[in-house]
TrEMBL record:
Protein name: Protein nucleotidyltransferase YdiU
Reaction catalysed by this enzyme: L-seryl-[protein] + UTP = O-(5'-uridylyl)-L-seryl-[protein] + diphosphate; L-histidyl-[protein] + UTP = N(tele)-(5'-uridylyl)-L-histidyl-[protein] + diphosphate; L-seryl-[protein] + ATP = 3-O-(5'-adenylyl)-L-seryl-[protein] + diphosphate; L-tyrosyl-[protein] + UTP = O-(5'-uridylyl)-L-tyrosyl-[protein] + diphosphate
Enzyme Commission designation: 2.7.7.-, 2.7.7.108
Enzyme class: transferase
Cofactors named for this entry: Mg(2+); Mn(2+)
Protein residues bound to ATP: G107, G109, R110, K130, D142, G143, R200, R207, D287
The entry's keywords: ATP-binding, Magnesium, Manganese, Metal-binding, Nucleotide-binding, Nucleotidyltransferase, Transferase
Annotated residues for binding of Mg(2+): N278, D287
NCBIfam families for the chain: PRK00029.1
InterPro entries: SelO
Active site: D277 (proton acceptor)
Source species: Candidatus Proximibacter danicus
Length: 530
């Protein structure tokens, strides 16, 4: 039973703060076009056939003070078939650099923002339906989303939150009852797939590209309006009258983005499409598409088959974030008197990323960031060793946590590590000997520092997830849901809401990638088709 203070979603009070405070336009709502001098366009959702509530986030609903209430009414609302008083459906205008090139106007081509509500803690949360039909920004696409990508976004948003990684949230997953045509591999063989809509929730969905579009068009008035709005409502710690406010704000965006990058590296997340339209101004993980998780430790891994050059590969992400911040800085130039005032922000990115990644990386091996007494080298060496064979990153760090580094067997590796390897029968001798040397050095370091095993394990348990929503597991949940069986999805949600605790009853979701998934569609390779 939800606490009594919780009110049914369909009886909640809504507003649309963003739409009330910023200029918009109400041209033909479903006609693709260039929209100028507006931050948003009126965009009523296109109703669907037979909405069905497939999943609901109880933890998020609780934080919002919401109860699900009547599920049929909720499904209708979150499919876009009806609106509540105070809601105002809009699509936001933004642009972006895609794969390094300016792409012009993009905008919410299928996300429709309904409005926002105040949570009991005073935070304002905007509700957005992803896949709710055509908007002025749909270009040649259909405004819809498929079950496969929607389920992935729902589960991953939930997982990221519980992993402690800043993210937009997802409240609900609704099946539309309408098929959607997708060419999943861009190979000229489109197929019908079930459609679905995710209800995304965040304090704001403003992106780097939201500023770039106005700068590119020379629309300094809108650029300033949007920047002032974002500062006033999302960065209250910055004095809105401070002449240096844009520089201070940019530095804070850079700092948050750096923290986010460190988290992504720590949990092994690869976003897949870090275009500037997919970077949140609040430093949240946003726009889950062809994302993936490291199975094998491989800095060059990307799940996105569209990204042939590996621009957005795992280890490239901090550098790309910095490149994207440069694009944001370019966009903000008209607001600052001298470009140099944005430089401390760029420095803040580098400094924050370095210290934050260092802290988190060391926590992964149970050490604290002391003045460097070789601990950085210890972690760097370990990552280098992991690249010598196919080792599962997530399983390895949890196994390292449970083994006693002071008790190395006479030959070979500690038995705790056995289950981590994808090709255990052919472990390179260089790998075994270097890992043995490393474990000895690690053990010596722990002894020198007087770190008890209890402390070490507690630190490691908080930094190394026991479970992440691996692509092959998501694919299994998608296959079952497509056949009408939601039980796997529900079990998976329970498991990923407690990611740092070993849950033997959910072991199947934490297992290393099975051989069948090595090259399977949706498991190791994803396209942007969603
Ligand atoms: P993404 O890289 O997936 O974040 O999307 C890039 C741009 O394409 C955004 O402007 C999206 O709104 C738009 N887009 C992606 N898929 C669709 C779709 N099915 N219908 C309309 N617009 C879409
Ligand atoms: Mg996007």
């Amino acid at each position: 039973m939800p606490p009594r203070s919780h009110s049914p979603l369909t009886e909640s009070a809504f507003d649309h703060h963003f739409a009330r405070h910023l200029p918009g336009e109400s041209g033909p709502p479903r006609q693709s076009r260039q929209v100028t001098a507006a931050c948003w366009s009126y965009a009523p959702p296109t109703p669907v056939d037979s909405p069905k509530l497939l999943a609901w986030s109880e933890p998020l609903a609780n934080a919002l003070g919401l109860a699900v209430g009547n599920t049929e009414k909720v499904a209708e609302l979150l499919a876009g078939n009806r609106l509540l008083p105070g809601m105002k459906p809009i699509a936001a205008c933004y642009g972006g650099h895609q794969f390094g090139n300016w792409a012009g106007q993009l905008g919410d081509g299928r996300a429709i923002s309904l409005g926002d509500m105040l949570a009991p803690d005073g935070q304002r949360w905007e509700f957005q339906l992803k896949g709710a039909g055509l908007t002025p920004y749909s270009r040649r696409a259909d405004g819809r989303a498929v079950l496969r990508s929607s389920l992935r976004e729902f589960v991953c948003s939930e997982a990221m939150f519980h992993l402690g990684v800043p993210t937009t949230r997802a409240l609900a997953l609704v099946g539309t009852g309408e098929p959607v045509m997708r060419d999943m591999f861009y190979d000229g063989r489109p197929e019908m797939e079930p459609g679905a809509i995710v209800t995304r929730v965040a304090p704001s969905f403003v992106r780097f590209g939201s500023f770039e579009i106005f700068a590119a068009r020379g629309d300094v008035e809108r650029l300033q309006q949007l920047a002032d709005y974002v500062i006033a409502h999302h960065f209250p710690e910055i004095d809105a009258a401070d002449p240096d406010r844009y520089a201070l704000w940019f530095a804070e965006v850079a700092r948050r983005t750096a923290v986010l990058m460190a988290h992504w590296l720590r949990v092994g997340f690869v976003h897949g499409v870090m275009n500037t339209d997919n970077l949140s101004i609040l430093g949240l993980t946003i726009d889950y598409g062809p994302f993936g998780w490291l199975d094998v430790f491989d800095p060059e891994f990307t799940p996105n088959t569209t990204d042939q050059g590996g621009r957005y590969a795992y280890a490239q992400q901090p550098g790309v974030a910095q490149w994207n911040l440069l694009r944001l800085a370019d966009a903000l130039l008209p607001l600052v008197h001298r470009p140099e005032v944005l430089e401390p922000g760029l420095d803040a990115f580098g400094e924050t990323f370095e210290s934050e990644w260092r802290r988190q990386a060391l926590q992964k091996i149970g050490l604290e960031a002391a003045e460097n007494r070789g601990e950085d080298d210890l972690m760097a060496r370990l990552l280098g060793i992991l690249m010598l064979t196919e080792v599962d990153t997530t399983l390895f760090f949890r196994a390292l946590m449970t083994l006693d580094p002071a008790r190395l067997p006479a030959t070979g590796l500690p038995p705790e590590l056995e289950g981590c390897f994808y090709t255990p029968q052919i472990l390179p001798t260089a790998f075994v000997s270097r890992l043995r040397d490393w474990l000895a050095a690690y053990s010596a370091r722990l002894r020198d520092e007087g770190v008890s095993d209890e402390t070490r394990q507690a630190r490691m348990a908080a930094a190394n997830p026991w479970i992440i929503p691996r692509n092959y597991v998501l694919q299994e949940a998608i296959n079952a849901a497509t056949d009408g069986d939601l039980s796997l999805l529900q079990q998976l949600l329970i498991a990923i809401r407690n990611p740092y605790t070993a849950q033997p009853e959910h072991a199947r979701f934490a297992a290393k990638r099975p051989e069948w998934a090595r090259q399977a569609p949706g498991c190791s390779a994803l396209s942007c088709s969603s």
